[in-house]
Amino acid sequence: MTHDSRRFLQPEAIQRISRLEVEARQVVEGFLSGMHRSPFFGQSVEFAQHREYAAGDDIRRIDWKVWSKTDRYYIKQYEEETNLRTTLLVDLSESMLFGSGKLTKYDYGCSLAAAFAYLLLRQQDSVGLVTFDQAVRSRLPARSKQNHLHAILAALDVQEPQKKTGLYEILKQVAEEETRKGMVILISDLFSPRDSLFKGLKMLRQRGHDVMVLHVLDDEELDFTYAGTTKFEGMEEAGDLLCDPRSLREGYLKAMHAFIDEVRRFCSKNVVDHQVIRTSDHLDAALAHYLSHRIGMRQSVRN
Fold first, then answer.
1. pLDDT tens across 19-33, in order?
2. Where are the alpha helices (DSSP H) in the chain?
3. Measured between alpha carbons, how far is 163 from 87 in angstroms, rounded to an integer?
4. Using the 8-state DSSP alphabet, how is residue 108 labeled?
5. In a domain, 144, yes or no
6. Residue 153 and residue 296 share a domain
């Protein structure tokens, strides 16, 4: 494999996605001044609640209108706008090497990760990266400096996908290590035991993270248009199969739809964003559609 990390984020792609913004769907924790809500109270633009005055409080924050009605001193508290801390999880298992068009799932997944990293860093949010198969392949801590994008692109391109997927172990590790609430973006074909996947996603949600699942699949995995005697070469120790695919199409599509529906139902029930993305989808169009959909869901959560 020839390594050129720039292929994951071409200048024309940057131009097409530069108008987009990534917003947190729920309360996050952070330090810098940004566009996301924080559970920590400070002086900012959005009023949150009152609390009774205590010795040592800044008297400038006393709400005198409340005092005039109650004859008691109350302090105004605000929700502090904050930066978002995001962890990108990118699947580098062997099945991600599959591709029937110009891009493999690995290529497309890395391009998605690069685009999110670019958008988040442009917003002065901090971004970290974990690439994985059965175990963590590489890890970059969250940083908010613009030059961090180069490190992310290089890490995405450093190794060729291999081995099987171990989603639960990875999600569990991230949930245990990321103690501050933030956003976790999982980019994968999700070819892993569903029970383990769901257990890992639920753990992230229980820790208060905003979780996004970008379910990357190839057109042929979704449409299965093969015809004539075909040899399918298994990935991740699946073995090979020589057959007439037309005889398998109905059963295969039924199983694939059931798989996607099961993931979608779980994610909906557990407030996890899930989106199937085809490797033939234009990156900017797929991102624009997904992020605009998230804005609507974010507003409904806040209301």
1. 787 876 654 455 444
2. 11-17, 64-70, 105-122, 148-156, 167-177, 194-206, 219-223, 249-269, 283-302
3. 22
4. H
5. yes
6. yes
